[in-house]
Design brief:
Layout lengths: L1 H12 L6 E6 L4 H9 L3 E12 L2 E11 L3
Antiparallel strand pairs: 1-3, 2-3
């Protein structure tokens, strides 16, 4: 998973010339949180009831990575 997301990040900041990527992750999703931390994302905030999943509103943490980081 790390290798795949690394390639996506490289493409986003390289060929696509994006300056920012965001990841919104449920706090209970420890594997995804480990992955984005490992790839250099930093936590920007918390979004209560951000997304409705299976009929329930779920909180999410907002993480970001900037091209110049």
């Amino acid at each position: 998973m790390t290798e795949g997301l690394s390639l996506v990040i490289k493409q986003a900041f390289g060929a696509l010339r994006l300056h920012r990527l965001e990841a919104n992750v449920q706090p209970s999703n420890r594997a995804s949180l480990r992955l984005i931390r490992r790839l250099g994302f930093h936590r920007e905030g918390f979004s209560p009831r951000y997304l409705k999943i299976r009929g329930r509103w779920r909180d999410h943490e907002r993480w970001a990575l900037l091209a110049d980081e």
